[in-house]
Specification:
By secondary structure, the protein is an alpha/beta fold. The protein has a single domain, classed as Rossmann fold (3-Layer(aba) Sandwich). It contains 6 helices and 5 strands. The protein has a 5-stranded parallel β-sheet, with helices on both faces. Helix 3 runs parallel beside helix 4. It starts with a helix and ends in a 16-residue tail after the last helix.
Length: 167
């Protein structure tokens, strides 16, 4: 077998083992660096994610208000509306969207002062694309598990009838 055939077989095997991303997963990437936005979008689109990108926090906030997303990946240091401010707006609007924050420096102090931001993950820059993909997969999987657990709560149709009531 040729090397490229082995690579293709290995890719199919890895994809089967790891599972394919849900094609309905829409990800918003907010980063001021156009090269990084393109790199992230390309890397995330390859396994099948639907990716939108914007260059600053204000555009990110507009996108979040107009389209449904399953995940936000934002840079910490954005011009104008920072990544932290974007997440604050998101949480103030009661949006439970999971957030992955990419940062060259650790925003630990700000995060400690704002525990209500509930970041799903923090990716220290620079990072490998494989780290980005693994983080996205884990965060989306955890978010799906959380939604499934919420759906398991009994609703009015699954409750037994009250004593003395006959249907």
């Amino acid at each position: 077998m040729k090397d490229n055939e082995l690579l293709q077989l290995g890719d199919r095997t890895d994809a089967a083992v790891q599972g394919r991303p849900n094609p309905r997963h829409r990800i918003l990437v907010v980063d001021h660096d156009s090269d990084l936005r393109l790199l992230y979008a390309d890397a995330l689109a390859r396994p099948g994610y639907d990716v939108d990108t914007v260059e600053d926090g204000a555009d990110g906030w507009q996108a979040l208000r107009t389209k449904p997303f399953h995940l936000l990946i934002t840079e910490y240091a954005l011009p104008g509306l920072t990544g932290i401010e974007l997440v604050r707006k998101l949480r103030a609007a009661h949006m439970t969207l999971p957030v992955v924050m990419a940062s060259e420096r650790s925003p630990a102090d700000e995060l400690a002062r704002s525990p209500a931001l509930h970041l799903a993950a923090l990716l220290p820059k620079p990072f490998y694309i494989s780290q980005l993909l693994e983080t996205v997969r884990e965060v989306l999987h955890a978010a799906e598990d959380d939604r499934e657990q919420l759906d398991l709560r009994p609703n009015w149709r699954s409750r037994p009838p009250a004593p003395g009531l006959r249907l």
